[in-house]
Amino acid sequence: MERIGVIGAGTMGHGIAQVCAMAGYAVTLTDARQDSLDAAMAKIRANLDKGVSRGKVSSEVRDQALAGLATGDLAAASEGASFVIEAVPERLELKQSLLRAVADIAPAECVLATNTSSLSIASIAASVDDPGRVIGTHFFNPVHIMKLLEVVVGADTRDTVVQRVRHLGAAIGKDVIIVRDVPGFATSRLGVCLGMEAIRMVEQGVASPEDIDKAMVLGYRHPVGPLRLTDMVGLDVRMAIGSYLARELNNAAFEPPALMRQMVEDGRLGKKAGRGFYEW
Q: What is the pTM of this model?
């Protein structure tokens, strides 16, 4: 049984750990905070129980997943692992330091994967002695439901690493797209641009958030509108990504509008704060 270490037990990390365990991998989830680990395990159990009650997950798969899941420290997640996937906040220095620490513990053939929606894979990989083993694995929230896995190939990423991650994606039930390491990749570049324009439309009084979202859901068959999605991701998170893309791509279309900056300053961060463009 192949072993996978997942670093970071937040929204993305616990979802990644769940789908890997459901696919039969032995998974060790780690986090700097024990309360985050406890909360993550509770959420995974709740997700699996809900899946069983709805007939989406068999009781056998649920029991297998829970039996294959463990928590531990960074060493426990790294030792003997075939893959280590970090899913910590979007701070370059944090991701660099974690992968550097993992590289010192994990086997030489272990793939080092970073779950990032915008940061440069080459910059993250520069922190380890062998950047060829580093690759981007951009999962989508909620991980156990969303089918897409955006695989981002750095300048030094080896072809064998790409193929191994393709295989992992298929094993955990994801449809894989391969993207070159450019700012925003494919998904964030398109999604954030749309989101910023939607916010500018609210700012200019073009239409209400509800009607702008309805236009994209009913007119373009998006599963969720750009403003509701911004609430779900977090206005602070999207503002940081937008600022980064505006700078890296030299494109004002990604620049966060004044309305967004004011909402973040006021603590209207979206779903996690209970209010953003919507009340949650």
A: 0.90
> Alpha helices, DSSP H only, in 84-208?
92-105, 121-125, 159-171, 187-203
Q: Are residues 155 and 232 in the same domain?
A: no
Residue 277 belongs to a domain? no
86 DSSP β-pair partners: 7, 114
The three-class DSSP label of residue 111 is strand
Residue 280 forms part of a structural domain: no
Would you say residue 49 lies in a domain?
Answer: yes
Burial of 108 (0-12, 13-18, 19+ CB in 10 A): exposed
DSSP 24: T
What's the CATH number where 60 sits? 3.40.50.720
Hey, what are 11's tokens?
A: 């929204």
| Predicted confidence (pLDDT) per residue in 44-98, tens digit | 999 999 999 999 999 999 999 999 999 999 999 999 999 999 999 889 999 999 9
C-alpha–C-alpha distance, residues 4 and 7, integer Å: 10
Structural domain of residue 108, as residue ranges? 3-180
- Give the chain's domain count: 2
